[in-house]
Amino acid sequence: xxxxxxxxxxxxxxxxxLSGVKAVLPLMIGVIPFGMIYGILAISAGLPPSTAxxxxxxxxxxxxxxISAQLFALNVPAIINILTVGVxxxxxxxxSASIAPYVQKLPNHWxxxxxxxxxxxxxxxxxxxxxxxxxxxxxxxxxxxxxLTLWTTWQISTAAGIFxxxxxxxxWSLDFTLALTFIAIVVPALKDRASTGxxxxxxxxxVILFNLPLKLGLLAASLIGIMVGLAIERRS
Length: 236
Hints:
The protein is mainly α. Helix content is 71%, strand content 0%.
């Protein structure tokens, strides 16, 4: 393959890919125990190991998988389970709208792969990379590196949780690592009044609306955060 000599070495596909891997690695501290907890929960809910692992490969969204496994344990109708997962994953539509301008010129096969790999952690590190403003044409390789790292880690940690079953004591409170992961994602992005106001209002709303059915509190809190952020930005 002929290399464009005018392109800085740091922006070459291989280097962008490795940069994406390195950027998302610190967040795996929270992802690994979260994936293990999901695997344990899925088996406890009565899901066959193959189905529990398949959910990680197909749905590939931790919170939705948790809810789906819990609904399965309660014998909730499949259509309600599917709709609930869809509602919880609506936040990915916001991620897509944010990142779409940066990937719109890519071939369709790239868009399909990157859309599948779009998660909270991958989005967080990738959007920051895109917004740096340099002229690299290979930033999608950074996105691919971060997304594949997260996907691989999620599959392995899920399998570990399925294998270990209920042998991990609840007193370890591994689920708290998820909250720490999201704090690590959000805090570096709070660079102005609008983003800080959006984060604080969304956090408060999430606590207040926590008991809404079908996890609608998460969606409502996201919308409230967006509206508050936009309002502060317009006033500024």
